[in-house]
Write a structure and sequence with these properties.
The chain has four helices and no strands. It is elongated. The chain is an all-alpha fold. The protein starts with a helix and ends with a helix. The relative contact order is 0.12. The longest helix is centred in the C-terminal third of the chain and has 28 residues. Helix 2 runs antiparallel to helix 3 and helix 3 runs antiparallel to helix 4.
Length: about 100
């Protein structure tokens, strides 16, 4: 097999192209907490669900960043990690400006 940039980026150690994988526990928790936030739009339950969703997505991103099967999955983890940090900084900055 030819070791092209495409191969290095998208193939795992078995030579398979991996873009998506079956969901793992952190992604399932994030999905469930995010869905429940649609039911509980305000209050302490919403805050708890937001913390749970963000924390589980953060765990998923860190796992992908350091243990992803290829560079695509690791890059995806890095992008999601940066997105979480930027969105939370914007959220907290917006809240302090509104106070």
């Amino acid at each position: 097999m030819n070791n092209t940039s495409f191969d290095n980026f998208f193939r795992d150690s078995n030579g398979e192209i991996v873009i998506a994988q079956p969901p793992n526990i952190p992604i399932l928790v994030w999905f469930a907490a995010s869905l429940l936030q649609l039911l509980y739009k305000t209050g302490q339950i919403n805050l708890g669900l937001d913390i749970l969703a963000t924390g589980s997505l953060l765990v998923w991103a860190i796992l992908e960043l350091f243990q992803g099967v290829n560079y695509f999955r690791r890059s995806l983890g890095a992008i999601v990690l940066v997105w979480i940090l930027v969105s939370k900084i914007q959220q907290f900055s917006g809240n302090s400006l509104a106070s």
